Amino acid sequence: MTGLKRIRGLLLDLEGVLYVGSQVIPGAEEALDALRRRCVCRFITNTSTLSLASLHAKLNALGLAIPKQEIFSAPQAVLNYLKRQGDPVCHLLLAEDVKRDFASLRQSDTYADYVVAGDIGEGWNYAVLNRAFRLLFSGAELIAVHKNRFWQTEEGLKMDLGGFVAALEYASAKQARIIGKPAPEFFRLALADMQLAPEQVAVVGDDIDTDISGGQAVGLLTILVKTGKYRESYVRASPIRPDWVIASIRELPKALGIA
What does the pLDDT look like over 90-109, one tens digit per residue? Predict the structure, then answer.
């Protein structure tokens, strides 16, 4: 792992790398303290069930002292994108807490320039999907916070947003614009904030499809952790190959030569 010694910045996924649900990954707090002594850190997440304020509060409650300005969430990236489109009318398929961050946008259930799809859990049903389909068929564009296949919870793996996005894409014959990981622009925004070149930064994640493939697309070194949604059989079947695989975030300081 000698190539890691030159790393000056880290893009760290949250769910699955630092915690799962309400459980902190063993050693995560100590690892973060060590990593911050040498690296510029930013925290990237596709989580779209919590507003930025709620996400920050959750991290604090878990004992993870992460400043709000260091969090790059996919919903915030969506909001920034929509604000650059002028004054669009949006149909929001978002959790109620996340909708608080989108309160400044015009919203409608009967006409929309954009249908915005995020995690709404048990809220998905035929009526919700069909309403979105009709808006898309009438001219709206589809924006997806992300298109993850599944995610890890304290109860086990759960189907994620990607299946519902795929259903809307198929029915409407429209391709969703993916804003969160693995979209290259999402990673570039974080890099710009760090003021570091891609070759100076590594991404650390538990998802080979979003964290690892997304990081490789913009020239980052990639580190896959065997926590969260990691499944050896799934990784083995993937054509994507991370630069390094470690057991958990606990091992990262040593790999970087910090501890």
Answer: 999 999 999 999 999 999 99
Residue 62 has a pLDDT of 95
Tokens linked to 84 = 């650059």
Q: Identical fold at 2-46+181-255 and 86-178?
A: yes
| pLDDT band for position 132 (cuts 50, 70, 90) | very high
Q: Which CATH number fits domain 2-46+181-255: 3.40.50.300, 3.40.50.1000, 3.30.2010.10, 3.30.70.590?
A: 3.40.50.1000
Q: Does domain 86-178 have CATH number 3.20.20.60?
A: no
Tally of CB atoms within 10 A around 90? 21
The answer to whether 203 touches 214, Cβ cutoff 8 Å, is yes
Neighbour tally for 34: CB within 10 Å:
18
Specify the pTM: 0.88
The pLDDT value recorded for residue 157 is: 84
CB–CB of 171/206 below 8 Å?
A: no
Domain ranges of the chain: 2-46+181-255, 86-178
* DSSP line for 66-118: --GGGEEEHHHHHHHHHHTTSS-EEEEE--HHHHGGGTTSEE-SS--SEEEE-
> Cα angle at 173 between 182 and 183, to 5 degrees?
10
Q: Torsions phi, psi of 43, nearest 5?
A: -120, 115
> Cα(91)–Cα(117) distance, rounded to whole angstroms?
9
- From the list 59, 30, 50, 129, the residue with the least C-alpha distance to 96 is 50
Q: Before 182, cis peptide (omega within 30)?
A: yes
